[in-house]
Amino acid sequence: MAVHPALTGLLDGGLQPGAAYSVDGGALLLALLAEPSGSGLWCGVVGIPELGAEAARSAGIVLDRLVLVPKPGERWLSVVASLAEALPIVAVRPPSPVRDGDAARLAARLRERSSVLLVCGDWPRGAAELRITRAQWSGLGAGHGYLCGREVTVSVTSRHSGMPRTARMLLPDANGRLAAGEVSVVEVSRRPRLRAVG
Question: Is the pTM of this model over 0.70?
Fold first, then answer.
């Protein structure tokens, strides 16, 4: 499933049908929904009541193909499963930790329907975790000016590689959307530092 070119290298080309991804940050979630929505796919958002239609539209999401379920109640997992039957991409913020058995059943549903799940927070059996590890706003001078963009470093840790990949990008840029930065994807090593002991 297509993602913005700035995220393509971090996600091995795009979001894999049948997979779940953990995402931190509302801006990053909207950026992940924008490309599929713009290409004609329907999207659903469950359990994020503060997500407004104007913010979604500004991020590039087509409102005519967006299903919002702000307060799904205690049966939120059933709501997500039902939407995954009909929509190719569903985002959710779980109100409580998810049991492995429930995640496994939903994963089977996602694979069967080739749907993608984006989760704000932790999720067992996720294909990858996307995080904003650094952010810096620009546009303000010495007490004056307007915020015109935010440069962020996005880090993606895949279940298969285990080695984080990072890239810098603008989120949002001056137009309120995701834009590629000047830095290409960098593999981050997790090898421990060695220290001499006397």
Answer: yes
